[in-house]
Design brief:
Number of domains: 3
Helix content: 55-70%
Oligomer: single chain
Strand order of the largest sheet: 2-3-4-1-5-6-8
Distance between the termini: 67 Å
Largest sheet: 7 strands, mixed
Number of helices: 29
Length: 692
Amino acid sequence: MNLTGTEHVNPSPTVALAGMPNVGKSTVFNALTGLHQHTGNWVGKTVSGAAGTVSCSGQTITLLDLPGTYSLRARSAEETVARDFLCFSQPEAAVVVCDATCLERGISLGLQVMEIVPRVLFCVNLLDEAARRGISVDLTKLEETLQVPVVGVTARSGRGLSQLKERLAQLLESPLPERPAPAIPADYADDAAPVLQLLREMETLHAPEWIACRLLEGDADFTKHFLQQDTISPKQQPLLDACAAFHETVSPEVFGDAVIAENILRSEAIAAKAVTKPGQSAGQDRRLDRIFLGKWGVPVMLLLLGVILWITIVGANYPSALLSAGFSALEHQLSRLLTMTILPAWVCSLLLDGIYTVLTWVISVMLPPMAIFFPLFTLLEDFGYLPRVAFHLDKSFQCACACGKQSLTMCMGFGCNAAGVTGCRIIDSPRERLLAILTNNFVPCNGRFPTMITCITLFFAAGSGLVQSISSALLLLGLILLGIGMTFLVCRLLSATLLRGVPSSFTLELPSYRRPQIGKVLVRSVLDRTLFVLGRACIAAAPAGALLWILTNCTIGDASIFHHAAAFLELPGQWMGLDGVILLAFLLGFPANEIVLPILLMGYTSGTVLTEAQSLTEIHAILTAHHWTWVTALCMLLFLLFHFPCSTTCITIYKETRSLKWTAAAWCLPTGIGILLCVSVHVLSRCVQYLF
C-alpha cells in the first residue's frame, strides 16, 4: 500500500491523524479503527504508516495515522512524510492529537496544520494524567480561542471517543472555514509580498502563505519537491528569482527563527487562556527522574537489565520443558499416523526426524524466553523508561560519532536483531542509520540466550540453585556489556574510515511516567512481537531441518556428509579454540540461532536426528568427553556473541539497505571480530599453559 494520498481510489473522505510522539496518537487511531486497519510504506521513504476506516454517524471515513512529528518544518523522514501528505495530498480534514499535560506544544503543531488543512479538529488526550497532576484544561475556552472543534479524550480507557467521532462527522459536513491569519511575520510581509503574490496567482494551489514561508526559510527538500509539481512549471523561474531577491535582504535563518518565534508565542498565549496549572507540579515524575536520570541512573539501568535477564533465565526453564514433553508425545502420535500411510520410510523420517524435530526444538527453546522477555521489555516501554535509557547512552553514542537513537534500536536487538534493524528507520541520517544496522548484531538476540546460559551455567557459574541463577545472570550481563562496548568501538572505527561524518542532533522526547496497562501489554507483546518473531524463525527452521536430515543421513564412503564437513572445518576450528563440529553447527544454525546447540550435541553423539539431552549434567558429560575446557566454553561464548546474523536478519538488512555490499559487510564484520577474539583467547591460553 502506498500512503501518498495523491490518488484516492476510496470514495470515502480522507482524514489525517497528526500529533507529536508520545501523545497517544496511535492509541487514538487503534481505538477508532479497531481491526479495520492495514499498514504500508510511504512512497520514497522507509517509514511505515497505518490506514484504517472508521464509521462516524453512518459515514465511512478513511483515517491515516501520520508519523509522529514535532513540527512541519521537517528535519527527519517521519516529519517529511507528515508535511508532504498534509501539504500535497489535500486531505478533507485533520485531527491533531495533543497531550493535555503540555498543551502548548500540541497547539504549536496544530497551528501549523491549520495553515494547510481547511478543516481541523483538536483532540486533547491524556486528560487523566493532567488531572493527576492538578492540571485542568478548559476545552470550551480552547475551542473559542482556536475557532475549531476541540474534544477531550482519555484514549487508553476509551472515554470521549464517541464524541470525537460525532464531532468529526459534523466537521466533514460543515462548509469550508476561512483560513487563519497568514503565517508570514508582519515585519517581513512587504519583502515577502512578491513571492506570496506569485503563489496566490496559482488557483490550484492551497495554503500559499504556508508554502511561502517554507520557500523563504530555504527548506531545500521542500523546495525541490514543490517545484517538481506540474502546475508550478510556468512560475518556477519567477518564484526562484523572487526568493533570491528576498534573501538579498533577509537571510533564511533569520526569517525561519522569526516564524518559529511567532508560532511559539501564539501557542503559549492560547494555552495560557485555557490551561490552569498548580503552583508546584510534576512532583512524582521529578522524584522518579532523580532515580532514573540522576547519579544512580546507570547502576539502576544495569540492575533492571540484570533483573530482566534473571527472570527470563529462571522463568523459561519450566515452560520449555513442558513444551518439549508435549511435542515429544505428539511426535509419537504423528509417527503412528505416518506408518499407516503409503509414504516411504525415508519420507516419514524426513518429515518427523528432520523438519518436525528442528521446528519443535526452535519453538520449545525460543518461545518461553521470548514470552517472558518481550512483555517485561514492553512494560518498561509502556512505563516510559526506555527513552531514559536513550538519554543515558546518548553521550556514549555521540562520542562514537553515532546517533543517540541507536540506543533504542540496540535495545530492540535484545529481543530480535531483525526487529532492531527495522527499528533503525527512526534514525534520520543515512550514515548513522547504516552504522546502527551494521552493529545491531553485536548485542545478543533472544535466540542466542539459551545456548549462552547453558555454557555459562556449565563452566563458569558458581554455586547451585538461586546462587547459580544469579551468577549466570551477572555473567550474561557482562557479555552483553562487552557487546555494547564493541558496538561503540566499531561505530567509532567505521566513522573514522568507511563512514566518515559527525554525529547529528535529534530531539529526544521524555514522556511522563505512566502506569503500564498489563493486559494490553501482554496481548501486544505476544501478538506483535513474540509470535511475529517466532513465525519468522519457524519459516527458516523448517528447511533447515530438511537440510540437516540430508547431511546426517546421506553418506559418502563410511561417514555422513555432516562428518565430512566437520572434518574439513576441524583445523580452522582448532585455531579458534573450538572444533569442526562447533563451526559446522554455527553454519547450519544460520536459519535460526536456537538450533546451534542441538546440532552440536547431535554431531558429538553421531546421531542422525536432533535429540534433547535430559539434563545439564548430561550435556556437560557430552561436552567434556569431546575435550571441552573453560577455554573452549569461553571461545564458544565469544563466537556466540560475535558471529554472522541469522538468515532473517540478513534478509531484513538487505531490505533496509537495498545493497548486497552492506548486507555482506553486516555478515562479515561481527564474524571477523569473533574469529579474531577466539584466536586471541586460544593463543593466549596456550602461551599461559606453556609458561606455567
